Amino acid sequence: MDNVKIAILGLGNVGQGVWNILSTNKNVINKRAGCNIHIEKILVKNKLKNRTIALPEGVLTEDPEDIFRNDDIKVVIELLGGEQPALDYMLRAMRAKKHVITANKLVLALHGRTLFETAFKEGVHFYYEASVGGGIPIIRELNESLTANKIESLAGIINGTTNYILTKMSKDSMTFQSALKEAQEMGFAEADPTSDVDGYDAAYKLAIISTLSFGQFIDVNSISTEGIAKIHPIDIEYAKKFGYVIKLLAIGKKREGTLELRVHPAMIPDSHPLANVNDSFNAIFLKGNAVGDLMLYGRGAGDLPTGSAVIGDLISVLRNHVAYTFLNLKNENRRPKAILPREKNTSKYYIRLNTLDKPGILGRVATILGSYGISIFTVNQTIINEKNVDVVFTTHLGEEGLVHRALEEIELLNEINSIESIIKIEEL
What's the pLDDT tens digit per position in 7-41? Predict the structure, then answer.
């Protein structure tokens, strides 16, 4: 078999996972790829850093030119993370006629059009299976198995960190801060967890799979995004009481000629398959007009699951399969669907108020909600102390903008101490 030289940019957890998989499964991978894969160079910041894996002499380099100016290197695997220099390096590799594989959801979400136009222009493959869902083959499904379908909607748990935190809060009655600390100790959360807990990571991934599902480039800034930091243990207990589980969902669906795209915590029925996706696992629930309902489930992160997706892409490149593109760039003439503004998104709602224990307050709150076309489905009241109570409403469907305008008015009532929680309810 022929020898094919490749390079890896970055040797963090995923980079080491790729190295370990290529080493452990070398014979079967080479057989399936139809060639002998040889890692020629690995770009790192510091060659002298102590590492847990043994590397041959001369493989590590701190100079990217050792890769871009080496015509023998045919494939570049970008595993640096972050926006720069990852974007610049991928574009340079493409312009040097090297195929590119990445796990970088941030760069794809922000610069997908540029990357795919460059790959198309230079005649190279560009694969990105590992950018969404770790080891779950969602990109391959959308590009191959589901191409006979029109995707009507998708809903997914696509961030392992937040799912781990919410699982711990639900199963072990932990506070958000305690669950976050444990997630960091377990390696599921970064020292700075902002991208995960504020929903941005899930929004990047939603932009990628929505682009594939709905056939148009999605601006990640058009996705309504909300994190989980305001979820309290008492809200999780109320969810259980109502037959729900709280998950951070990424939702995309067609709606009357527009697209509704959002990331937010939601109460979902405890009987739904997504409700039983726990810890750091991910799952994506799709509805196609031919296949119907379909759920993909698996490890959403980690060195070996993500590395597995990277190696799968590498084998596809070496077999000369058709490159995975967001869209057929030569025929992108359709008028794109508008993204529904956040205030027009519709959901049912769970609303928890802390109020003075006085007669008539329920009626006044209901009247204000009704004036904005929002009808109450259930009401629960819990005594906090001799003066204050928790009042919990669930509502029928309402537009987000109208719900928030109603709550702004409710908050002005003298009897209202605070609006404690507002969580969407998704029946899926």
Answer: 999 999 999 999 999 999 999 999 999 999 999 99
Which residue is catalytic, options 105, 168, 205, 253?
205
Please indicate, yes or no, if residue 115 is contained in any of the structural domains: yes
The rounded Cα 302 to chain-centroid distance in angstroms is 14
Instruction: Tell me the per-residue pLDDT of 297-332, one tens digit each, with 9 for 90 and over.
Output: 998 888 899 999 999 999 999 987 555 556 554 454
Model pLDDT for residues 63-85, shown as the tens digit of each residue: 999 999 999 999 999 999 999 99
Residues in the chain: 428
- The whole domain housing 185 covers 138-300
Tell me whether residue 222 is exposed, middle or buried, using C-beta atoms within 10 angstroms of its C-beta: 0 to 12, 13 to 18, 19 or more. Answer: middle
Whether 234 maps to a domain, the answer reads yes
Instruction: State yes or no: is 241 an active-site residue.
Output: no
pTM: 0.94
* Cα 203 off chain centre by: 6
Same-domain status, 130 and 163: no
For position 37, which CATH number holds? 3.40.50.720
d(CA 339, CA 219): 9
CA distance 347 to 267: 11
Those residues with Cβ within 8 angstroms of residue 88's Cβ, 6 or more apart along the chain or in another chain: none
User: pLDDT by residue (tens digit) across 199-255?
Assistant: 999 999 999 999 999 989 999 999 999 999 999 999 999 999 999 999 999 999 999
Q: Which residue has the higher pLDDT, 336 or 342?
A: 342
